[in-house]
Amino acid sequence: MLRKLLASALVFAVLSACSSGAGEELPAGPDLMKKAAEAMKTVKSATFSIATEGKPNVPVKKADGRLTAAGDADGTITLDVLGSLQEVSFALIGDTVHFKGPTGGFQKMTRQQLAQLYDPSLILSPTKGIAQLLSSAAEASVEAEEAGAYRVATTFSAQTLGTLVPGVTQAVNGKVWVDKASSRLTKVELPLQNGGVTVSLSDYDAPVTVTPPPTAG
């Protein structure tokens, strides 16, 4: 009798271990996106990267830099100017943008002038950036858990995507990765006509101080 009880207990333990190891239940897509949007509103700083694949019809082909919630940012942006790729270094501080093209020294423009091309500092804006993108996403469905993040398929409107990727003129069925521990966004993949765009965010809340370039007056 004792042997049967021990055998039954062993079988139960094995079955329990197998069921618990099958993976946790995935969260509901809309709930996760809402939670992620709220988490992004508290971000103080981040590192960002934008990369394109193929030939999507967007002016920003590549970008790397740092952002603060206050709106300061620095880094490099590669733009498609009349079919020619031009890399621009920039430092956005307050209402002033210090920028340098492939030749010559640094010049200045206003934030308003930059916004006509692309304002990367809006990425962390609680009302216009990633937080707004996530809160307005439609038909969100969590597909899987990958390396500590949830992969979510969802639909973004052209209006909200325009802040992140200028040139997008229609709704896009894309995917986002939301960190399981912090609920913050780690990556966005946007399939577009003739190619696609990937936006990655990391180094959240690391100390960032954006200063004018040494040669700037």
Protein described:
The model is unreliable at 1-22 (pLDDT under 50). The N and C termini lie far apart (89 Å). The protein is globular, with a radius of gyration of 22 Å. 30% of the residues are buried. The protein has a single domain (25-202), classed as Clam (outer membrane lipoprotein receptor (LolB), chain A). The chain has helices at 2-20, 29-40, 111-115, 130-135, 158-164; strands at residues 45-54, 60-68, 73-81, 84-93, 96-100, 107-110, 138-146, 149-156, 172-179, 185-192, 195-202. The protein has an 11-stranded antiparallel sheet with strand order 6-5-4-3-2-1-11-10-9-8-7. It has 217 residues and is α+β, with helices and mostly antiparallel strands. Pfam families: LppX_LprAFG. This is LppX_LprAFG lipoprotein. It comes from Nonomuraea glycinis.
Which tags fit this structure?
23% helix, outer membrane lipoprotein receptor (LolB), chain A, globular, 5 helices, alpha+beta, 11 strands, disordered N terminus, eleven-stranded antiparallel sheet, 217 residues
The H-and-E topology, N to C, reads as HHEEEEEEHHEEHEEE
Largest sheet: 11 strands, antiparallel
Low-confidence stretches: 1-22
Quote the CATH topology. Answer: outer membrane lipoprotein receptor (LolB), chain A
Helix content: 10-25%
Widest sheet: strand ordering: 6-5-4-3-2-1-11-10-9-8-7
Mean of all residue-level pLDDT scores = 86
Structural class: alpha+beta
Cα gyration radius (Å): 22 Å
Using the coordinates above, name the CATH class. Answer: Mainly Beta
Number of helices: 5
Number of strands: 11
Number of domains: 1
Structural shape: globular
Strand content: 35-45%
CATH architecture type: Clam
Distance N to C terminus: 89 Å
Main location: other
Subcellular location: Cell envelope
Pfam family, one: LppX_LprAFG
Protein name: LppX_LprAFG lipoprotein
